[in-house]
Amino acid sequence: MTDFATLLRPDRGGPARLLHLVDSGLLPEWLKNQAGQRRALIEAARFEGKAGQHLVIPGPTPAADFDVLVGVAKLGALTPWCLAAAAERLPEGTYRLAGDMLPGTAALGWLLAHHRLTAYKSKPDAPTGPRVLLSPEPARVDEMVRLAEATALVRDLVDTPAADLGPAELERAVRDWAKAAGAEVEVTKGDALEQGYPMIHAVGAAALPARAPRLIEARWGDPSHPKLAIVGKGVVFDTGGLDLKPATGMRLMKKDMGGAAHALALARLIVAERWPVRLHLLIPAVENAVSGGAFRPGDILSSRHGLTVEIDNTDAEGRLILADALTRAGEEGAATIVDFATLTGAARVALGPDLPATFSNDEALAADLLAAGTDVADPVWRLPLWDGYDDMLKSDLADLSNSADSPFAGTITAALFLRRFVPEGVAWAHLDTFAWRPAPRPGRPKGGEALGLRAVHAALQRRYVSR
């Protein structure tokens, strides 16, 4: 992974080129104070101060070879991505913001502009030298590095082809982190999985024996502290099962473990920041494959909870494995449960790729998530747990069906299904995230993406640390 710690350093007064941040409204006033040569060059370049623009300009003295003029959307409200375009294109060197400007979360985009997954290129692009940003906020340097590492982890895991990231490799990723973090790992598979977590086993049975399903759990922290469970959907590849997806729908299904990637990244942040919680990470890891061992439409599955589930659609498998994992989280007395999942196409139809559909049974937790998403520029959008749609999950033969009997409200009915497996009185939030960026933006290449990760991190941090 990119060594982000070398790209953002505390400013100790060493030499650095200046980044002058302006917006289109303030640019004319800024130009009035510039020497004639600099002003003429800027005007000739037709620099307008728009977000994403930058322009290399002569330094104010012969000893300063050049400065950089950077356009931002609004000077008083820097976003995490306002420096990313410049960071992607500037020459190697060391930079600092001019005047008394603080980078804040803009340092995150600066860092992530340097990161790409290149392991699969036979001839990777020639590496460019590092662009180092000096920050006058030493207390925030480590914070931004941690967030960049967590985001890059999600991106890299989601971008890795399914042939190289199966249930065993997800387990290895958790074990590698846990060993360094001092967390305990427990993995359930084989007969124990079939008996104890029958829906996780059923979804992954078609991939046996080579890619055996499993429930991966990690625990960290003082058992006397508040219990926080983080659950992530780990479907390493989703064919749709016997309700087979078309080729276009299957193409990106290596990303169906995006929820697990978010959950692991959040766990890493929590442990790195030493929160006063008892953390329980749960990742049900399966491949939804096609074989003689595949579960079928019309099958009735038992669950760890005890409810029986009739299978209406084998492509609604994510909620099945999450249900067993949510039940397990509740058994250990979690006070708060948050799950991440690339769960429904309906969420993308409703909200597009950028906004995770967010559900919660707790008004305070929901409010915290929405506020935090706005504050850290990682927006989420709340949808209702509408009780009136519960009847869509009725089954004539079992306690409920895994898929609604209507094409309407697919995101909501999926969340209502999950709610059946959350214990009463436990604050729970469910994020139906895309985990993918379909088109590149500065600092955010096309491919795997962390969407909702920073929002949940900030909300839970306020709940368990800041308060």
UniProtKB/TrEMBL annotation:
What keywords were assigned to this record?
Aminopeptidase, Hydrolase, Manganese, Protease
* GO molecular-function term, one example from the UniProt record: aminopeptidase activity
Q: Which domain of life is it from?
A: Bacteria
Entry keyword annotation includes Transcription regulation = no
Hydrolase recorded as keyword: yes
Homology family: Belongs to the peptidase M17 family.
Looking at the record, the residues that make up the Cytosol aminopeptidase domain are 313-320
What SUPFAM superfamilies does this protein's entry cite? Macro domain-like (SSF52949), Zn-dependent exopeptidases (SSF53187)
Listed InterPro entries? Leucine_aapep/pepB, Macro_dom-like, Peptidase_M17_C, Peptidase_M17_N_1
* One Pfam family linked to the record: Peptidase_M17_N_1
Q: What is this protein called?
A: Leucyl aminopeptidase family protein
